[in-house]
Specification:
globular, mainly alpha
Length: 153
């Protein structure tokens, strides 16, 4: 995860996470991998909540302002935040705050390194999805997002 080393160090220092910083980045990657529409669909969740310019500027690397924890909860769903928190041994509130900081940075880094990273992420989708999204999942309804973002065809 060399492209994420600086972000992992920043998360570790900013949130006093120590070795859990790497696990948070892995969780974000797992959430993106589990999204049927990929990175565009994942970013589209935030666009549909009114952060329209956010994901677009994250992708080109202009700005990576943190997302409010409430926006993370709305976009990902309380059950997903609770699963991430449980996997990392933190409270859901803390997990939402860390994810709000990490998500824009991960999207930016993936967008910059997309050609090199996408095949590796795609190859890991089954393993990552199984770890992050259990079979009986409570997710934000997909129909809420249909037609609200473009997915390259």
């Amino acid at each position: 995860m060399a492209i994420f080393d600086e972000l992992i160090e920043e998360l570790s220092a900013r949130f006093n996470l120590g070795p859990k910083a790497s696990a948070f980045v892995e969780q974000v990657l797992g959430l993106i991998a589990a999204e049927p529409a990929g990175l565009d669909g994942f970013a589209g969740r935030f666009t549909s909540l009114g952060y329209g310019a956010g994901p677009a500027v994250w992708r080109i690397g202009i700005e990576t302002a943190p997302l409010p924890a409430d926006a993370v909860r709305k976009a990902l769903g309380a059950a997903t935040i609770s699963r991430v928190a449980g996997a990392l041994g933190v409270t859901p509130e803390f997990a939402a705050a860390v994810l709000g900081y990490a998500i824009p940075h991960v999207v930016r880094l993936l967008s910059q390194e997309n050609a090199a990273f996408e095949p590796a992420l795609t190859a890991r989708v089954p393993q990552v999805r199984a770890a992050v999204v259990p079979a009986a999942e409570e997710e934000v309804p997909r129909q809420a997002f249909e037609g609200r973002y473009l997915v390259p065809g």
